[in-house]
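U., I forgot to send this yesterday:
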Amino acid sequence: MILVIGEVLFDLFPEYQRIGGAPFNFAYHLKNMGFPVRFFTRVGDDDMGRRIIDRITASGFDPDDVQIDGRHPTGAVRVALDENGVPDFTILKDVAYDYLSLEGGPAEAAVDAVMIYFGTLVQRTAAGCEQVRQYLALTQSGAIRFCDINLRPPHVNPDAVNVSLEYANLLKLSEEELAAIQLSQGRSTDDPGGIAWLMKSFDIDTLALTRGSNGSRLYHGGDVVDMPNTPKTDIVDTVGAGDAFAAALAAGVLRGISPGDIIVQAARFASKICGIAGAVPDDAGFYAFSGFYANGDTISMRDRTGMANDAE
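Result:
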């Protein structure tokens, strides 16, 4: 089972609203690719929260994994797009997902998880960071702990970044986020060995670096695979492109395909998401092209010495 923890929210565009949040987007993609996924999150007892629960239920997730907060509203982000569809985010504070509890059912599920996906926004508070730290400590040593760094100032908790790096063995981040981490660790951003230092210091097996207009790069087992930027046509917006990349990366690792094929598929899927409004499609047929469908209930799990080995 793949467990996803963190925020679900509404992206509020000038003319429409879409359900989003990196963990939700990631979970939704993997679920529609055929993988077994549980998504633990928290919403407010309000109209947006009820709409989210309806969408989650219709998408095949267990609504009992969604906590309802009677004191805090459902999370939301105001999204402004420039002429190229690139978003600027204003993230609302003190919302339901800031109070997500990972005790009880979520904690019991963590013990046997094949993969746990987590980010840094749900850790923006000290309480949220401690919740995630305790949760990750429950996982088996062979579990894939996938951290998707998502630094959105001023919603950045330095302790959360450190906790995330200490537990992650699969990491996705951008060049800007890499630079911020290097500076926080007292290292120069001009150091060409920054990636090697990061992977060795925190025992990270696989690292994906997104590089904006320069494409992306995947590091694994001493190998480096580059994916040049592919010009996109018919861009609606780029919201959720990074989450789509993360989902395809996870699917490739779980299926045990080669690093070169993983990064090609991840870039292709992220590009396809840019052609729709918001971060996730309404039509499950959107996923038919991906080639990442799970084989029944059996998925592959990479171990600490190779890209993958068969596991339930």
